[in-house]
Amino acid sequence: MFAKDKYSTRFRANSVRIDEIFHLDTMLVAGHLAGFQRVKDDFPFMREALLKGGMMLFSGIRGAECVENLEHAFGRLGQLGSLGFLVKASQPVFAVEGEQLKFSWELTRTGWFYARSYKKVLSKVHTWAEGAREQALARALGLDWNSLLLQQPA
C-alpha cells in the first residue's frame, strides 16, 4: 500500500506539476549539466530563480548571460559544496465561470525555483501555486484579492 504524501496531496490540490528537476550536484559532470541545453530558452527565468534563491553572492551566477555561463559557474561552485535543486513548475491558468473555478492544461503559467534542499524547493513551488489558486478563488467569489492580503495578520 502507498502512504499518503503531503507533497503530492498539495500538488493535486493546487493543480501544479513539475516539468524539470535539476539536482545540480548529481547532474554536473565535467563542468556540464545534463539536459541544460534543452531549457536554454528559459535562461533568464532560471537565472532569476537562482538569484532569488540565494545565489546573488556568486558573480558567476550574477553575471551569467547564457546557460553555458551558468554551467561554468556551477562547475566552479560545485567544488566548494552542494548546489541544490533548480525546478521548473507549471500550473494551468484558472478561469472563473460564475462562482466556479475551472482550468485546462492548454493554457499554463510556469515558474522556475531554486533552493539548496528538495523540501525547500517544493515549498517554494507550493507557495507560488497556492497563491495563484487562492487569487482565482477570490475572483470566483467576487472578493478583492488585494484587500484580502491587507487583512492578513502579520
Verbal overview:
The model has no long low-confidence stretch (mean pLDDT 83). The chain has seven helices and five strands; from the N terminus they run αβαββαααββαα. The longest helix is centred in the last third of the chain and has 23 residues, at 118-140. The chain is α+β, with helices and mostly antiparallel strands and 154 residues long. It has one domain (6-151). It starts with 5 loop residues before the first helix and ends with a helix.
Characteristics:
single chain, 154 residues, alpha+beta, 3-stranded antiparallel beta sheet, 7 helices, 5 strands, elongated
Shape: elongated
Q: Helicity, in percent?
A: 40-55%
Order of helices and strands: HEHEEHHHEEHH
Q: Which structural class fits the helix and strand makeup?
A: alpha+beta
Beta strand %: 25-35%
Q: Determine the number of helices (DSSP H or I, runs of at least 4 residues).
A: 7
Quaternary structure state of the chains depicted: single chain
Query: Spans of 5+ residues with little confidence (pLDDT < 50)?
Result: none
Count of domains: 1
Let me know the average pLDDT. 83
Largest pleated sheet: 3 strands, antiparallel
Q: What Rg, in angstroms, do the CA atoms define?
A: 18 Å
What is the terminal separation in angstroms?
41 Å
Number of strands: 5
Strands across the major sheet, in which order? 1-4-5
